[in-house]
Design a protein that fits this description.
Blueprint (H helix, E strand, L loop, with lengths): L1 H10 L1 H14 L1 H6 L9 H9 L1 E3 L24 E2 L5 H13 L3 H8 L5 E10 L21 E6 L11 E2 L2 H5 L13 H8 L3 H4 L1 E2 L7 E4 L6 E2 L7 E9 L14 H14 L7 H4 L1
Antiparallel strand pairs: 1-7, 2-3, 3-9, 4-7, 4-9, 5-6, 5-8
């Protein structure tokens, strides 16, 4: 039964819509009591809204992690979240990201003053070029609008499987299936949708400490097709009542609470509120 429910959730849009309705009803009180964050429009927000992606000018100082010690940890999965093994390090990087000039205003502005921290993860990927699961071309359906930060915790070159996407104008023209959540190989994207993913793709290669932003619901993309190990920290914001809360694939409530407490102590001038983390 669990496998059937998982299949329905990850493959059928009607299931996501029903989940979204339940989440909206569940969060009505939260939405009503949410104190709107005051924000200022800036170049980060304007460029992100125009292109659905952006590279931050500021590079972050990130901890050194020996990837050789992680080899084999992801096994046959596209990635494995090792956030609980590096909790303190993740907290420090999160605070550095939030202190980056203009970032919190951009977060608040993209969600009209009411952002919610959907997830924080530290994803490790083993070398693998198989086009399966998240490594296929797809859109994310966590919410209507999503702001996805990718902090490179290791150098990411072509062989490391950088985040790869189709520009907004190309992605917008991909005709979406009305019933099922799309996942395509390079070949099936071309034969079924007439879109040459190889020709139009943009690969976000970067150095350790680089930060990229993307809206994975707007940009058709694919994950790490890597021939080398890689480590990336993800921080994702949505509206307070997203279509999907992610379930077991997102951080635990205790981690969420600890992150909020750490934020209060180490970023007392921050704009985000308890509602953003709750």
């Amino acid at each position: 039964m669990r496998k059937i429910l998982s299949f329905l959730r990850w493959n059928l849009k009607i299931t996501r819509k029903f989940e979204g309705l339940l989440n909206y009803i569940k969060n009505l009180s939260k939405l009503f009591n949410y104190k709107k964050i005051h924000y200022s429009s800036n170049n980060i927000l304007k460029e992100f809204e125009s292109n659905a992606y952006l590279k931050l000018e500021n590079k972050l100082e990130v901890p050194k992690v020996n990837l050789k010690n992680l080899l084999g940890k992801a096994k046959d999965k596209a990635f494995v979240d090792i956030i609980n093994d590096y909790k303190t390090e993740v907290f420090d990087v999160f605070i550095s990201l939030m202190k980056t000039p203009g970032v919190e205003d951009a977060i608040a502005g993209y969600f009209n003053g009411k952002p919610w921290l959907w997830n924080c993860a530290l994803n490790y990927s083993d070398p693998s070029k198989a086009q399966t699961s998240s490594k296929m071309w797809h859109f994310d359906y966590g919410d209507k609008k999503q702001m996805h930060f990718m902090i490179y915790m290791s150098d990411i070159d072509i062989e490391s499987g950088p985040f790869t996407f189709l520009p907004l104008d190309v992605s917008t023209n991909v005709k979406r299936n009305l019933f099922t959540i799309e996942r395509y190989t390079d070949d099936s994207l071309l034969t079924e949708k007439g879109v040459d993913g190889i020709k139009y793709q943009t690969k976000l290669v970067g150095d350790k400490g680089d930060v990229f932003m993307a809206d994975p619901g707007e940009l058709m993309h694919q994950g790490a097709r890597a021939s080398k190990p890689r480590l990336v920290m993800f921080v994702t914001f949505t509206s307070p009542a997203p279509i999907s809360t992610g379930g077991d694939s997102t951080m635990s409530q205790s981690f969420r609470t600890d992150l909020w407490n750490n934020y209060q102590v180490n970023h007392s001038e921050g704009k985000l509120t308890n509602s953003t983390f709750k």
